[in-house]
Write a structure and sequence with these properties.
By secondary structure, this protein is mostly helical. The protein has helices at 2-39, 43-46, 48-57, 67-78, 85-94, 97-122, 136-142, 147-181, 185-200, 203-232, 237-248, 258-273, 280-284, 294-323, 335-346, 349-380, 384-403, 407-430, 432-447, 472-478, and strands at residues 125-126, 132-133. It has a two-stranded antiparallel ribbon. A hairpin with a 5-residue loop joins β1 (125-126) and β2 (132-133). α1 (2-39) packs across α6, α6 crosses α19 and α14 crosses α15. The protein is globular.
Length: 479
């Protein structure tokens, strides 16, 4: 009886997932990306260099969480096994052409990420400890006056990022260490729980500091390995690029047709960079922006989408395509295909490197996912007791994920994430006029050679900003 019930639930969840990720979300998020790109006059291309400059400037010390720390925290959540295993799956399902569509969706998604992160800064609030919090739930309540909408978003995010995805990341870590070194999953799980607990119990600032230390190291190390493979196969690069473009439009039989490449690439790209999901906007609101203007954090998160997909996912694709492993993949797919590619190119030691990379990618995802969920817990209730209970439940899910396969939980998380994205896209579309006005103000000041500052009094159309949080005097005082 119980098994039949579980089977029925799985069938329903899988059907909803198929509808969400197979069609609805793809069309909605692509449409949003095109709309915001056009309305912002291709800002992701026009001011890409300015965005990169703000990321670098964000390393300056501030009284709070710096823009660079927020950038690293959002990257910690974005960059995970999806950047390795997800790319391999996309290529397996849709052929090399899937990479072209991953690139395209990331370039469009940069504009969407810009909008949601700017709004998160506009409508941020300060908690009892002086820490800024915000995100979709907050701008839904303050900007739209719809607390019910923010509550729905918060619940969906907590289910997906607070519990299920953290269990999935822990499961991937224990599997990798068990397969590579034979480590006992229970012992590894306990270590993960202790390490995660130490950081997340320190709150957002400790999560941000840990991300600032770990993320750059793991990203550079992974890109260095990809660069070695690229150099070893430099003569094959033109052919690989040609294959990507030809396969994207169905000109190569290996791609399985243009539609297969398109659907696989767009779906994996959206899943990887999270543009439009509203997740990264939660940590974006916590930054002390530099310069003191909401749009500056929009620029920073725009660059995050670029690094996630155009840089790191492309590195994984290069390793697979240049290694020649697709000529004889055997039974390998997902992370196994990437491991086989690296082993063929660099030898058996590279399998251990991938295990180490997975360890870092997944661990940072756990602590960053927690930070997203914490902001939404604090939206639902200001009770510290509830927050402590939530931390305990998160760690319990990490332990459960370490020792058991929780496929139904992960599938349910995909549903939650998909619905979360639909709610967020609806909200940022309704608030888009606010975002456009704020971004226009930033560009206007920048063209005058000023360091942009935000004065809410100049925007009578914006309602719901907490009194004093964005006054020029107060922000100057913080700096």
């Amino acid at each position: 009886m119980f098994e039949s019930l579980i089977s029925a639930i799985e069938s329903v969840v899988n059907a909803i997932n198929g509808m969400l990720w197979g069609s609805v979300l793809i069309y909605v998020l692509v449409a949003a990306g095109v709309f915001f790109t056009l309305r912002l006059s291709f800002i992701q291309f026009r001011l890409f260099g300015h965005g990169a400059k703000l990321v670098i400037q964000g390393r300056e010390k501030v009284d709070g969480i710096s823009s660079f720390q927020v950038f690293c925290t959002s990257m910690a959540a974005r960059v995970g096994t999806g950047n390795m295993a997800g790319v391999a799956v996309a290529i397996t399902v849709g052929g090399a052409g899937a990479i072209f569509w991953m690139w395209l969706i990331a370039l469009l998604g940069m504009a969407t990420a810009f909008i949601e992160s700017t709004l998160a800064q506009v409508y941020k609030v300060k908690d009892s400890e002086g820490q800024f919090r915000g995100g979709p739930a907050y701008y839904m309540e303050q900007g739209l006056g719809k607390r019910w909408m923010g509550t729905l978003f918060s619940i969906l995010l907590i289910i997906a990022f607070g519990f299920a995805f953290n269990a999935a990341q822990a499961n991937t870590m224990t599997d990798a260490l068990n397969n590579a070194f034979g480590f006992d999953k229970t012992i590894v799980g306990i270590v993960i729980v202790l390490a995660s607990g130490y950081i997340i119990c320190g709150g957002l600032k400790k999560v941000a500091r840990a991300s600032e230390l770990i993320v750059p190291v793991m990203a550079v190390a992974y890109l260095a390995i990809a660069m070695v493979v690229l150099v070893l196969n430099i003569e094959q690069v033109p052919a690989a690029l040609s294959l990507i473009v030809k396969s994207a439009f169905g000109w190569e039989e290996a791609a399985g047709g243009a539609m297969g490449a398109m659907m696989a690439g767009i779906a994996r790209g959206l899943f990887s960079n999270e543009a439009g999901m509203g997740s990264a906007a939660n940590i974006a609101a916590s930054a002390t922006p530099n310069p003191n203007h909401p749009a500056s954090q929009g620029f920073v998160q725009m660059i995050g989408v670029f690094v996630d997909t155009i840089v790191i996912c492309t590195a994984s694709a290069a390793i697979i395509l240049l290694s020649g492993v697709l000529d004889n993949p055997g039974e390998q797919k997902g992370i196994g295909l990437l491991q086989l590619a690296l082993t063929n190119e660099l030898g058996g030691w590279s399998a251990y490197f991938i295990s180490f990379a997975i360890l870092l990618f997944c661990f940072t995802s756990i602590i960053a996912n927690y930070s997203y969920a914490e902001s939404n817990i604090m939206f639902l209730t200001k009770s510290k007791k509830v927050l402590y209970i939530f931390r305990g439940l998160v760690l319990a899910m990490v332990m459960a994920g370490s020792v058991a396969s929780l496929q139904l939980v992960w599938n349910f998380a995909d549903v939650s994430m998909g619905l979360m994205a639909l709610v967020n896209i609806a909200a940022i579309t309704m608030l888009s006029k606010v975002a456009f006005a704020v971004i226009k103000d930033y560009e206007k000041q920048m063209k005058k050679g000023l360091s942009p500052t935000f004065d809410p009094k100049q925007f009578p159309e914006i309602e719901g900003i907490e009194e004093g949080e964005w006054s020029t005097a107060k922000m100057a005082e913080k700096a």
